[in-house]
Amino acid sequence: MNSSSLDIHADLIARCRTGDRDAHYRIYKLYAKAMFNVGYRITRSEEDAEDVLQEAFISAFRSLDSYRGDATFGAWLKRIVVNKAINTLNKKKHESMLDDEHWDIAEAESQPEYREDLTIERIKQGIEKLPDGYRTVLSLYLLEGYDHQEIGEILGISESTSKSQLNRAKGKLKELLNA
Amino acid sequence: MKDQLEDFIQKNRAGFDDKEPSEKVWKNIESSLTFASKNRWNAVVWWRAAAIIFMALSAYLLMPKQVTKSQTSELAASEFSDVEAFYVQQISEKVELIDGFQKNEGLNGFTQDFKQLEAMYMILKEEMKSTPSQKVKDALVLNLLVRINLLNQQLYKLDQEYGKKEKKDEEV
After folding, report:
1. Contact criterion met (CB < 8 Å) for A53 and B15
2. A12 in Cβ contact with A73 (< 8 Å)
3. What is the pLDDT of residues B134-168, one digit of tens each?
4. Contact residues of A toward B, CB < 8 A
């Protein structure tokens, strides 16, 4: 990645470091919506996602000094959001993460086919119905753009577990969409 | 190897970020962060910080170390008494002014800093008596200067506040 794409908001971030309120607000406005959706997809609760968003921004702003610019600011912030969201989810433990035995279905390596046309709304509803473990892996991979190695690090699982979880999650999602 | 689902999501990625957080999130973030205020009163914060650094420096100076008395030390001691008289006069005038202003106010951040600096000064002065040196003299003078600056900032602030009150009274 070239440095110019990393530095889009370098000026704003530098102003944040000096305690500039307006710069903080502009950074918030730039990223809040995307980050809120990241948090929502993992926690599946608007209330929790707002708490996650709030905590993530506060800790990001407080630790701006540790942001060295080796990733984009957005990627750095997103990682904070993802970690906080997963913590929130783990605390609630409706189902324990990745303990989806009762949902287990045959690993579908074959290309899933969808009976009806895919729509954003249908996919979103389907994803929301997935159990926590599947939903998290599938969201991180398909929507947040992490690869299996990164997902492994984030969730503390192996790369191959991440891969098989994704396949299962896709299979389950197909089942839900075709139902 | 991308399937239909991955392909669809990638093409419509923006559509998946449709939720908006409420306004209260920013309000909460804002209230738990401290920003540099844009008005002049930020100067007070800086001077308070300077006062604290200065206290730490004084403490360092007071740490027991090998005593090396020299001729310059004697000179420093005699110079200092003139300088001290001048600044102490200034300080007491300003303190009187401020006391007049804020009789009813309790201990605030300013008076705490000021009292600490004052206490530090007394200790430094003892040090000056027993082992006079250029370093201790510098620390004493700096202490006086920092206190004068704190007082000036406080006077300015009180002046502003007093001005505002008067304006309000006029409006009423």
Report:
1. no
2. no
3. 888 888 888 888 888 888 888 887 777 777 666 66
4. 18-21, 24-25, 28, 32-34, 36-37, 40-41, 46, 49-50, 53-54, 57-58, 61-62, 111-114, 118, 120, 123-124, 142-143, 170, 173-174
